[in-house]
Amino acid sequence: MPEKVVVTGMNIISSLGLDINTNWENITAGKSGVKRISLFDPADCMTKIAAEVPPEFENLSRSYI
Question: What is the domain partition of the chain in residue ranges?
Fold first, then answer.
């Protein structure tokens, strides 16, 4: 018997935003979420860029934990 799947919501958390609308606006505007690493000093790393989530993510995540 096949399993049923019910989608009750949709969201994206990425370097382009913390919700689906912001992500879509930034994608369609041609923006890139890749920037110089800011969460630690990348001086000793081969790469200096990353797609980090926005700083506001920490506060948002606290409401779900």
Answer: 1-65
Q: What is the pLDDT of residue 36?
A: 96
Please, what is the end-to-end C-alpha distance for the chain in angstroms? 35
Encoded tokens for 2: 């096949």
For residue 17, count CB atoms less than 10 angstroms from its CB and return exposed for 0-12, middle for 13-18, buried for 19 or more.
buried
Counts of helices then strands in the chain (DSSP H, E): 2, 2
Residue 55 in 3-state DSSP? coil
Provide the 8-state DSSP code for 17.
Answer: B
Q: What is the pLDDT of residues 30-55, one digit of tens each?
A: 999 999 999 999 999 999 999 999 88
Among all chains, which residue has been given the structure tokens 């369609």?
A: 28
Read off the DSSP letter of residue 31: -
